[in-house]
């Protein structure tokens, strides 16, 4: 995925993946894209933000200086956001080995490394559809 002046590996950080997910929840009525200028005006709960592929006027961008959900939404609406394609083969491989992952977290729980709450959250996520 390559847009704006961002290094490609910026987008693989977990905090960035969360923002990519959040960007997809912004309703279309709140997004006005200028495809020529590659900018957008996005209305959020706390105001209206001026967004380009390199900058946003929201608090998240201001404090982190990394792409926020608004920048990802603009990139997505411009067709520049590449999402991984679902893979049956990779999904089957994951499913075939999910019990190993559960056993791993079970061991962490019984060793006192993680709480019962964390163990249950992780296992529920691993076993969910
Ligand atoms: Zn923003």
Structural write-up:
- By secondary structure, the chain is of the alpha+beta class.
- The protein folds into two domains: 8-77, no CATH class; 88-127.
- Helices cover 47% and strands 12% of the residues.
- The chain has five helices and three strands.
- It has helices at residues 14-23, 59-64, 69-77, 88-110, 116-127, and strands at 31-34, 39-44, 47-52.
- The protein has a three-stranded antiparallel sheet, with helices on one face.
- A hairpin with a 2-residue loop joins strand 2 (39-44) and strand 3.
- Helix 1 packs across helix 3 and helix 4 (88-110) packs antiparallel against helix 5.
- The longest helix has 23 residues, at 88-110.
- The two termini are 27 Å apart.
List the helices and strands and how they pair.
Layout: H1 14-23, E1 31-34, E2 39-44, E3 47-52, H2 59-64, H3 69-77, H4 88-110, H5 116-127
Antiparallel strand pairs: 1-2, 2-3
Helix pairs in contact: 1-3, 4-5
Bound molecules: zinc ion.
Zinc ion binds near residues 56, 58, 60, 61 and 70.
- Total helices: the number is 5
Structural class: alpha+beta
Helix content: 40-55%
Q: Which spans have pLDDT < 50 for at least 5 consecutive residues?
A: none
**In this structure, how is the largest beta sheet organized?**
3 strands, antiparallel
Radius of gyration: 19 Å
Number of strands: 3
How many domain regions?
A: 2
Order of helices and strands: HEEEHHHH
- Principal-axes geometry comes out as elongated
Q: Residue-averaged pLDDT, rounded? A: 96
């Amino acid at each position: 995925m390559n847009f704006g002046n961002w290094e490609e590996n910026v987008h693989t950080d977990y905090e960035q993946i969360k923002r990519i997910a959040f960007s997809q929840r912004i309703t279309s009525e709140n997004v006005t894209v200028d495809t020529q200028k590659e900018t957008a005006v996005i209305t959020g709960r706390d105001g209206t933000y001026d967004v380009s592929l390199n900058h946003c006027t929201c608090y998240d961008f201001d404090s982190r200086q990394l792409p926020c959900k608004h920048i990802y939404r603009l990139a997505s609406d411009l067709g520049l956001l590449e999402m991984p394609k679902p893979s049956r083969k990779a999904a089957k491989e994951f499913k075939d080995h999910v019990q190993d992952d559960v056993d791993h977290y079970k061991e962490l729980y019984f060793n006192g490394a993680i709480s019962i709450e964390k163990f249950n959250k992780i296992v529920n996520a691993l076993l969910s559809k």
